[in-house]
Amino acid sequence: MKDLTKVYFQGKREVRALDGVSLSVPSGSIHGIIGHSGAGKSTLVRCLTLLDRPTSGTVEINGVDLTAARSDALRTARRRIGLVFQQANLFDSRTIADNVGYPLEITGVPPTDREAKVAELLRLVGLGDSGKAYPAQLSGGMRQRVGIARALATDPDVLLFDEPTSALDPRTTDEILDLIVQLRNHRSDLVVLVITHEMHVVKKICDSVSLLDGGRVLESGPLTEVVNRLDGRLSKALLGIPPHESIDDSRGTLVDVLSAGERANQPVVAMASRAIGAEIAIIAGSVEHLAGTTFSHLRLLVPPEADPQAAIAELRRLGADARLTSELTEEAAA
């Protein structure tokens, strides 16, 4: 995506649903795009698939500009993207096999070849014995698997998931997320884009992530990089501090510390306590294993008799990122 912009008009009022969105995702990766309701996610899906033409900017896949295509060329270009909806959107009157084979049917693939391809796809998503069933006979998770198989029918370069697990229970969600990873491993040239508001989805499967807000990409990068920033919005969303008791100034000074990799497993709080000659308490924290790396985000209480800046200096010397919690709160408010 390069400078992707979409402008709507409500009467005389201009609404910029997308405002210069640029993003490049390499083959073989799973990229999450997260944002709250109204961030522009739905508009982005429509523009990426050319269901709605962007006002300006381009969408390119392997060097081919989809936004320049028209008519028959556009229909061909759209096949480069397989779209999986929040609801599977299956044809109730068709069997599972016929649902999966529908994209092949409308592109003129001969019946024998179509049947072989459908059987292969159903095996791939774990539904090899379900071809003769109808959507009403399947669970929500199974219907979503059918939707994934259908999206793969035209061998797309990009597999785009639009809130793929928001209607599923936690166990089924994890099963679908595991399947997405398996698909990426099965086809190393595939790009997987996941549009979601669920942090669990990003934590479990994404290699990289972008934060969309107000139609703009505010933060973007490899998961291990965006998380490893105390002042980052994505870091707060993915590795935030859980609610804890309020601490007044008489009890000391709050300090946030973020450690990654091997340092996340080291007793940095105990080491810093010894260095400054005072006992630093852990008020709250979270530990996550993301994209193969362990991250630890702790909120510490430095007692009144100790110098919090000395504690911060020692924590940084130990390789952690440490800052006064009040500074982070002020940055977030700004």
What does this structure look like?
Helix content is 35%, strand content 27%. With 334 residues, it is of the alpha/beta class. The protein has 2 domains: 2-233, P-loop containing nucleotide triphosphate hydrolases (Rossmann fold), CATH 3.40.50.300; 243-333, ACT domain (Alpha-Beta Plaits, 2-Layer Sandwich). Strands 7-8-9-3-10-11 form a 6-stranded mixed beta sheet, sandwiched between helices. Strands 13-14-12-15 form a 4-stranded antiparallel beta sheet. The radius of gyration is 24 Å and the shape is elongated. The mean pLDDT is 91.
Tag the structure with descriptive keywords:
334 residues, alpha/beta, Rossmann fold, Alpha-Beta Plaits, 2 domains, 6-stranded mixed sheet, 27% strand, elongated, ATP binding, P-loop_NTPase, transport
Beta-strand content bin:
25-35%
Architecture of the largest domain, CATH level 2?
3-Layer(aba) Sandwich
Q: Give the overall form.
A: elongated
> Approximately how much helix is present in the residues?
25-40%
Protein name: ATP-binding cassette domain-containing protein
GO molecular function: ATP binding
Domain ABC transporter: 2-239
Keywords: Amino-acid transport, ATP-binding, Cell membrane, Membrane, Nucleotide-binding, Translocase, Transport
